[in-house]
Automatic annotation (TrEMBL):
Its EC number is 1.4.3.23. It comes from Meiothermus granaticius NBRC 107808. It is an enzyme of class 1 (oxidoreductase). The keyword Oxidoreductase applies. GO terms for molecular function: oxidoreductase activity. Keywords: Oxidoreductase. This is Flavin-dependent L-tryptophan oxidase RebO. The gene is rebO. The keyword Isomerase does not apply. Residues 10-126 form the Amine oxidase domain. InterPro entries: Amino_oxidase, FAD/NAD-bd_sf, Flavin_monoamine_oxidase.
Length: 180
């Protein structure tokens, strides 16, 4: 059987791989001059790869972690204590976790009592309904939105499940040779 896969982002490449393993003759069509979709590693600036798109593997529980191990890619674990630093407008340095959680009055985003999602409510609708817009959106939800899509296309229930997922406490991993 012949199958055409549109887009060589991670989802398109994974679909092509699964179809190929199921004995399909697969053609992947990509509009850009590179594969990877949101994964975009730039090696032209410095000896160390710079990630312009997707940057982390979010815990060892996600499907990309065993793939990195299978391909023998070296990873660097980033725990919450080693979180990325950001400079605030007043000049202070804070970790991303502090900016996204503690400065908004939360000690642990998973301990907050989040109102339930209503039916098939989108994450965008949920955020508006609960007064969490703009800078009031907790960092972990901002991360979730940027990892998957815009908030209007995401399920509020799935986002809340993500916030309560204990595997996310493990931290993130960076692929040292570049995510691409």
């Amino acid at each position: 059987m012949k199958t055409l896969v549109l887009g060589a982002g991670i989802a398109g490449l994974a679909a092509a791989q699964d179809l190929h393993q199921a004995n399909h003759q697969v053609l992947v069509l990509e509009a850009r001059n590179r594969v990877g979709g949101r994964i975009h590693t730039d090696r032209s600036f410095a000896p160390t790869p710079i990630e312009l798109g997707a940057e982390f593997i979010h815990s060892s529980a996600v499907p990309t972690f065993p793939l990195a191990e299978q391909l023998q890619l070296k990873t660097f674990a980033i725990t919450q204590q080693e979180d990325t630093l950001v400079r605030l407008r007043n000049g202070d340095l804070r970790t991303v976790a502090e900016v996204g959680c503690k400065e908004r009055g939360f000690s642990d985003i998973r301990a907050v009592h989040w109102p339930e999602a209503l039916g098939e409510e989108s994450l965008a609708e949920y955020l508006v309904r609960n007064g969490l817009e703009g800078q009031r959106i907790p960092y972990k939800l901002q991360e979730y939105i940027s990892d998957f899509d815009h908030a209007g296309a995401l399920s509020a229930k799935a986002a809340l499940d993500f916030l309560h997922d204990k595997s996310a406490e493990e931290g993130d991993y960076r692929i040292l040779s570049g995510y691409d």
